[in-house]
Design goal:
Blueprint lengths: L1 E4 L4 E7 L6 E7 L8 E9 L2 E10 L3 E6 L6 E6 L3 E6 L8 E4 L5 E6 L7 E5 L3 E5 L8 E4 L4 E6 L6 E6 L3 E6 L10 E6 L21 E6 L6 E6 L3 E6 L9 E4 L5 E6 L6 E6 L4 E5 L36 E6 L6 E6 L7 E6 L3 E6 L10
Length: 369
């Protein structure tokens, strides 16, 4: 495990570069993001540990980060003053571009992985905005009418994006549809809906709505998303069956879940970061036998993979926790997978002013409860 200290600044977001396996960006804020400056760190992974290649100071807290898919040296950050800033790591001190349309804190930014000339942002002002780095103003504004903590483009379709909000709903927007009165909204799924029983009926269990803080698209199954938030529960949904409730429910965190990330290598594995100071590794129980694509890599069916754990995996569809990384000492707020090299390397950051780079495989196995 490698460690870097962001002294005086608490971590909020972390992202590996999509171009270099040895470069990580971290969005941070002074005073836990309540008041004060922000700092964007550009970190390099070297044989001597993690070194700061560069940092940029900002006048307000930074809450999220996303690397450009067009330019290897550029990235955007979400700021507490309602702005989105574009930085170039080859330059010094100031952003190359800034957009200011949101009325409150910007809490999420995400670059389109398919149509690489667009990115999106979401804010506490109850809107999602879509941008081009080549234009001074947004191209679309999508209202959610509630504090929107997370937004993301689908990694499979350049016109579809999603969000989760304080009203406990997962929303799907399709920019190919006419704007009309729905503002491109095609689905609004209540996250607190109980899963269906085997009879096809919802159980007589009342689940209270709670704020949804994070979500992520599965990288292999193009209709599956996972959500999580204040109620400490991870739920995955299939947008082909929006009224059927979650297809998997994963419980175990002791406090709110701040970040989710599906593995870029295995279709059933995801990471979570929580205010309980842990990062946890999960399988949602999916196997290639659940659909007709026998080439979909999963934790359960890759028996020869170096990422297998030594539990009793029996190929069932029941999800469970398969590992835990407990080395943060404050809220864990950001995590990301490395796209390159051996499957399993990731990075996390938190309010303990620490960036940890670690191998998921070292923490997988029977849980010591």
């Amino acid at each position: 495990m490698l460690e870097y200290r962001t002294q005086g600044f608490n971590g909020y977001g972390i992202k590996y570069s999509p171009f270099f396996d040895s470069r990580i960006a971290v969005a941070t804020a002074a005073n836990f993001g309540l008041v004060g400056n922000g700092r964007l760190y550009i970190l390099g992974l070297t044989s001597n540990g993690i070194v700061a290649e560069k940092w940029f100071d900002t006048q307000d807290s930074l809450y999220d980060i996303s690397w450009s898919e067009l330019h290897e040296n550029q990235l955007i950050v979400a700021s507490g003053d309602g702005s989105i800033k574009l930085f170039d790591t080859t330059l010094t001190e100031f952003p190359t571009q800034s957009w200011q349309e949101h009325k409150r804190e910007v809490f999420s930014v995400h670059w389109n992985l398919v149509s690489k000339d667009t990115f999106c942002s979401s804010s506490w002002d109850g809107t999602i905005k879509i941008w081009s780095p080549h234009r001074p103003t947004s191209t679309h504004t999508l209202p959610t009418h509630s504090c929107t903590y997370s937004t993301s483009f689908s990694p499979h379709n350049p016109s579809i994006l999603s969000s989760v909000s304080s009203d406990s709903h997962l929303r799907i927007f399709d920019l190919r549809t006419p704007p009309s009165a729905s503002n491109h909204l095609t689905l609004s799924i209540p996250i607190h809906t109980p899963p269906l029983t085997y009879t096809g009926k919802a159980p007589q269990t009342h689940i209270l709505p709670s704020e949804a803080l994070t979500h992520d698209w599965n990288k292999y199954r193009n209709t599956i998303l996972a959500t999580a938030g204040v109620d400490r529960t991870i739920r995955s949904f299939d947008i082909r069956a929006p009224k059927s409730g979650p297809v998997a429910v994963l419980e175990g965190h002791e406090y709110a879940i701040r970040k989710l990330s599906w593995s870029p290598h295995l279709s059933d594995v995801l990471l979570s970061a929580s205010y309980d100071m842990t990062c946890r590794i999960w399988t949602d129980g999916f196997t290639s036998n659940n659909n007709n694509n026998n080439n979909t890599p999963t934790q359960a069916n890759l028996q020869n993979s170096t990422m297998n754990y030594s539990g009793s995996g029996n190929g069932t569809t029941t999800g469970k926790e398969i590992g835990r990384m407990p080395h943060h000492t404050e809220f864990v707020t950001g995590l990301d997978w490395c796209l390159f090299g051996a499957e399993g390397w990731c990075a996390s950051c938190g309010w303990d002013e620490r960036v940890l780079v670690w191998d998921v495989r070292a923490f997988m196995g029977p849980l010591d409860r």
